[in-house]
């Protein structure tokens, strides 16, 4: 019996001298059988077969390293494949990240989320951070995309404007709400107003909430809101009294609309105060409106006023002979 014990001890020493040291070590004494005696590892991840090295698996302090060191128990089939009960769809990408330190990630948000879940399961911190950075970039791009809410009722619109922390620019554009024919340039000006709305959305989308109302009473009217109340209004429609029939005329006061949009930015992030209100009131009372425009101010509670700018509200014919000059009156 003592001779067998000594022989067994001698054989064990000889085995330890032949087997190479593992590429990674564990603080505890447990080793998963079959991993530490070879340089290469065969992995069966949900039916997807992968052949790699212990050195690759142990590059990061991850679940895969703990499998190498034996800190995590795994199942090894009779053919020597380490069986991992996990989908193998993205495991090749995880291995490539461990090999190269970086991998191209898909743009599809769903696939990116799946890869993040795999990285979190295997505890590969570098890949986790890589996925989070890619998601943040996608989020930044998504926030810059134009998003225009669709309003289905006046009550919903009022609630949204009252609770919105951003300034609000609303365009009422209901071409069908007209009982007269349009003048020759009205269709073009309607289109120009819509195009200007789209341009403002692209430029100020992150700072201003834009609302397009196609069911309102106005044919073409801009409204500007700050802190839940209307600050200014630019009405672009008027009635033309011709000799035989009335016509609806649509104007395109581009400069004034853009100016009011810039003015409304003072209410961004609730930055308006007494100075801001004074600035807007002085701006509204002292500015030049240009030819053919008029401005009305109505009190809306205390000293707060709404600037209403109408472009050629009433255009009347002077009843003179054919070919004579038309007179415009406010």
Automatic annotation (TrEMBL):
Gene Ontology BP term (one): negative regulation of Rho protein signal transduction
Pfam family, any one: BTB_2
InterPro entries, per the entry: BACURD1-3 (IPR045068), BTB/POZ_dom (IPR000210), SKP1/BTB/POZ_sf (IPR011333), T1-type_BTB (IPR003131)
GO cellular component: Cul3-RING ubiquitin ligase complex
GO molecular function: ubiquitin-protein transferase activity
Disordered, as annotated region: 1-31
Chain ranges of the BTB domain: 39-139
Entries under PANTHER family matching the protein: BTB/POZ DOMAIN-CONTAINING ADAPTER FOR CUL3-MEDIATED RHOA DEGRADATION PROTEIN FAMILY MEMBER, BTB_POZ DOMAIN-CONTAINING ADAPTER FOR CUL3-MEDIATED RHOA DEGRADATION PROTEIN 1
Family: Belongs to the BACURD family.
Protein name per the record: Potassium channel tetramerization domain containing 13
Organism: Poecilia latipinna
């Amino acid at each position: 019996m003592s001779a067998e014990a000594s022989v067994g001890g001698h054989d064990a020493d000889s085995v330890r001298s032949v087997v190479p040291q593992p590429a990674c070590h564990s603080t505890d004494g447990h080793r998963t059988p079959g991993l530490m005696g070879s340089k290469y590892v065969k992995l069966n991840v949900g039916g997807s077969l992968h052949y790699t090295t212990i050195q690759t698996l142990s590059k990061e302090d991850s679940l895969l390293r703990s499998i190498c060191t034996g800190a995590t128990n795994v199942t090894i089939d009779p053919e020597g494949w380490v069986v991992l009960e996990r989908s193998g769809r993205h495991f090749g990408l995880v291995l490539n990240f461990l090999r190269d330190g970086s991998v191209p990630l898909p743009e599809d948000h769903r696939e990116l989320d799946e890869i993040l879940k795999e990285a979190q399961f295997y505890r590969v911190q570098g890949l986790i951070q890589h996925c989070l950075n890619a998601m943040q970039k996608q989020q930044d791009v998504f926030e810059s995309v134009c998003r225009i809410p669709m309003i289905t009722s006046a009550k919903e619109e009022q609630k949204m404007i009252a609770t919105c922390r951003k300034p609000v620019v609303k365009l009422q554009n209901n071409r069908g709400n007209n009982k007269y024919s349009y003048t020759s340039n009205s269709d073009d000006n309607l289109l120009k107003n819509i195009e200007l709305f789209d341009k403002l959305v692209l430029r100020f989308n992150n700072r201003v909430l834009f609302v397009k109302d196609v069911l309102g009473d106005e044919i073409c009217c801009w409204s500007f809101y700050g802190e839940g109340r209307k600050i200014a209004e630019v009405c672009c429609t008027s009635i033309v009294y011709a000799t035989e029939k009335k016509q609806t005329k649509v104007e395109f006061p581009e400069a004034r609309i853009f100016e009011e949009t810039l003015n409304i930015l003072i209410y961004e992030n609730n930055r308006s105060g007494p100075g801001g209100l004074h600035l807007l009131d002085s701006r509204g009372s002292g500015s030049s409106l240009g030819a053919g425009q008029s401005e009305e101010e109505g009190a809306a509670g205390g000293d707060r006023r709404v600037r209403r700018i109408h472009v050629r509200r009433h255009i009347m014919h002077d009843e003179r002979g054919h070919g004579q000059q038309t007179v415009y009156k406010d």
